[in-house]
Design brief:
Layout lengths: L11 H34 L7 H23 L14 H30 L8 E2 L6 E2 L10 E6 L6 H6 L7 E3 L1 H4 L1 H22 L10 H19 L1
Antiparallel strand pairs: 1-2, 3-4
Length: about 230
């Protein structure tokens, strides 16, 4: 399983999750493109713009990147350099892959802690204690639930957040907790996908966390397609 095209969902639930992830990525990318296009037309044709458009595009772009990282681990789409590991035999390649997976898991746990600690104050929750790994929750966490985005208007169906985290105070703009929620969600997804990838490495279902020989595969596919077209003439 060396490339993103090799991924195949196993089971109905996996298929549903896979389709949801691909749809979410497509929707975020589509909304970014649509908002940018509309703003360009409004600016150069009508001399106006959607004032909150740029901020929403930035939010969607950050969501797309964070969500896409976890998705990339699932389908083995991340690029990497395997020139050295390919010099080793199959046993050592597997060991090196497991070693890299272990380092990635440690990094993912650290990122999960950092993501929670950054997001929690905006949700009216407590940050974790501990310098590297969580050891508990800090009751002295400064509440930042009142922080709002710069220009994105408040959405009516999110008004429940005012009573839930903002002590009943109304929001004039979208609270920052909403766009920042992707931080712990994406960190948790990355950790989950890395755990799944490590298990697959142990089971022998994949050889690496990265896509290998993508250039050679592309050349081979091009040659095969050219040979097919030539044979059909």
């Amino acid at each position: 399983m060396s490339g993103p095209s090799a991924y195949r969902p196993q089971g109905v639930f996996s298929q549903i999750v896979h389709e949801f992830e691909e749809t979410a990525i497509a929707v975020m990318l589509g909304l970014m493109t649509l908002l940018t296009f509309v703003n360009v037309i409004l600016r150069y044709v009508f001399n106006t713009s959607v004032i909150w458009g740029l901020e929403v595009v930035l939010i969607l772009f950050s969501w797309l990147v964070l969500f896409g990282i976890a998705y990339g681990f699932k389908i083995t789409a991340h690029l990497g350099v395997d020139a050295v590991t390919n010099l080793a035999g199959p046993t050592w390649r597997r060991r090196l892959a497991l070693l890299s997976a272990g380092f990635c898991l440690i990094y993912a746990v650290l990122m999960m802690k950092g993501a929670w600690d950054y997001w929690a104050p905006f949700a009216g929750l407590e940050q974790t204690t501990g310098r590297w790994f969580p050891t508990g929750f800090d009751p002295k966490t400064r509440d930042q639930a009142f922080f709002e985005t710069d220009q994105v208007p408040m959405l009516g169906f999110l008004r429940f957040l005012e009573d839930l985290i903002n002590q009943g105070e109304t929001y004039s703009k979208l609270p920052r907790v909403v766009p920042y929620t992707m931080l712990p969600v994406a960190a948790a997804l990355i950790l989950l996908r890395l755990v799944q990838a490590t298990i697959e490495l142990l089971q022998g279902k994949r050889e690496s966390l990265i896509v290998s020989h993508e250039a050679e595969d592309a050349v081979a596919d091009a040659r095969a397609a050219d040979a097919t077209m030539s044979g059909g003439r």
